[in-house]
Write a structure and sequence with these properties.
The chain is mainly α and 263 residues long. It has helices spanning 2-9, 11-16, 19-39, 47-60, 63-93, 96-111, 114-125, 130-153, 157-165, 170-208, 213-222, 226-255, 258-262. The chain is globular and about 70 Å long. The two termini are 26 Å apart.
Length: 263
């Protein structure tokens, strides 16, 4: 009961800590409005026009199926890359030889443009869900892999020696010694991969599927409807921010509570 009350008591502080993000969003909207005033609604509609168009899409029910399709593909590719990249990165980090062998391979994967993977995926899988999911997975995998690898390789040797000297149980060693350090590297990698997954999924849908936000953007482009295009972009960014700040950020704060104790 006390643990639940303690978590609830941290909610106001967490909400207050988001003022910086809100301020940056307000600044972005102000710059957007300034650009709209400068270039005109044909080139760059203002935020109000984009939000009004998005509200119309939501009210008509046209937005939810497209957003759900994009979210499904983006999150599926992200989940696969997070699971495979974290596991393989942790395993590679346990061996200096494996880390050295994997480094050039990861460099090649990072340097490969996502559009090239998309073309290959179209040849291999054709049009459908498999193409955007595979493209998201293969583009995000090296980011997560490097985060897990660095987290494992940079673990303080003195902490290992202390855990061994005091004969800490395996569970305590993993959860209290290894996990906090590795998570501090993994979470930034996961958040970066999450951001990449959405934009890569939309790009893949633009060429490979008949539904999703990417396909909707293709339709709005053919109609020269800039306001609708911006409305779809705003919808995707809103979903991305919701997943990051409502799902990943609270989990990150929970697993990194040890920083509050040591600071």
């Amino acid at each position: 009961m006390s643990r639940t009350l303690n978590r609830l008591s941290r909610i106001p502080a967490y909400l207050w800590s988001g003022w910086g993000a809100i301020a940056s969003l307000c600044l972005f909207l102000a710059l957007w409005e300034g650009g709209a005033q400068l270039y005109g609604p044909l080139i760059l509609p203002g935020p109000l026009a984009a939000f009004d168009t998005l509200a119309g899409l939501i009210a008509s029910g046209a937005a939810w199926p497209e957003l759900a399709a994009t979210a499904r593909r983006a999150l599926a590719g992200f989940a696969l890359s997070a699971a495979a990249g974290s596991l393989l990165g942790l395993l590679a980090g346990l061996s200096l030889t494996a880390a050295m062998i994997s480094r050039p391979l990861v460099t090649l994967l990072v340097g490969m443009p996502p559009i090239a993977w998309l073309v290959l995926a179209l040849l291999w899988f054709g049009a459908g869900d498999a193409t955007p999911v595979f493209t998201v997975f293969v583009a995000c995998f090296p980011v997560v892999f490097v985060g897990a690898l660095q987290g494992t390789r940079t673990l303080d040797r003195q902490l290992k020696d202390v855990a061994r000297a005091y004969r800490l149980p395996l569970r305590m060693t993993l959860l209290d010694v290894y996990l906090p350090h590795v998570i501090s590297y993994l979470f930034p990698a996961w958040i970066t991969a999450l951001g990449m997954s959405w934009k890569i999924a939309v790009m893949a849908e633009l060429l490979a599927t008949s539904d999703g936000v990417g396909a909707a953007l293709a339709v709005s482009r053919s109609h020269l409807d800039t306001a609708a295009s911006l409305a779809w972009v705003v919808a995707v960014l809103g979903l991305l921010l919701a997943v990051e700040y409502l799902l990943l950020e609270p989990v990150k704060r929970e697993v990194e509570r040890w920083r509050e104790v040591t600071s």
